[in-house]
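Reopening: structure tokens for the biotin complex, inputs below.
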Amino acid sequence: MRPLDPAHVEPMLRGRFGRPYLYLAQTDSTQRLLDAAQPEGAVAVAEEQTAGRGRIGRTWQAPASSAILVSTLLRPPPGREPAQLTLVAAVATAVVVERATGLAAQLKWPNDVMLDRRKIAGGLAELKDGAVVLGIGLNVNQAPAELPTETKAVAGSLRSVTGRTYERAPILADLLLELELRYDAWRDGGLDAIYEDLGSRDFLRGRRVTVDGVEGTAQLITREGRLAVATASGPLLVESGEVLFDR
Ligand code: BTN
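Re-run output (same inputs, fresh job):
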């Protein structure tokens, strides 16, 4: 399996994202390699992170060279909600995973990508001096025994679900192009512009869920990016947080 160094990835890039392309064999977190001084579309990639970050203060772990660990610098215009970027990332990642595997992928509000009911990817949007660093971790070639077990959602990788291994460079190049297309659409048209692709892959819709201790049935992701849940005491609109679900 080849590394994700510029020599392999740059010839495959077809859009604005990935320029410049920063690459390190090891770093603490690719989220820390980008800042507002860089142009939109600057990307940081690492083979291994020693302090990979997840949402809600969690860690993100993957053996060296097994996953795609990528952060992208974005400058959403005023009026767009940066929090929605995890949904943009999830749609782009799901579409790319579908092309690579031939299987249907779903997104679990607000930032997970699911394949065969396992979490195979997550997105993290962090504000930095008015810009946003959007990180994506996609589990590709981890064997089942290499996947984290302490996570709330059962973790998977493309390999653990399909039994195949994958060259990561073409998947990364495809992901950067798909992210650019979805981001541009969202920047110009808001969540409405990607709403069909989002709603049709909504993993939680119709599932029994628990949010902050409140139980209910997930209804849909609203056009503002909230999760609508029907509970015994009425409708609930969830803005952020963690949703637990019954399998
Ligand atoms: C989550 O599901 O909690 C989000 C995980 C985001 C992980 C990616 S890996 C690349 C980038 N660098 C990090 O430290 N985190 C994000």
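The pocket of biotin is lined by residues 29-31, 49, 52-55, 58, 60, 69-71, 111-112, 122-124, 135-137 (CB under 6 Å). DSSP finds five helices and twelve strands in the chain. Marking as resolved unless the reporter disagrees.
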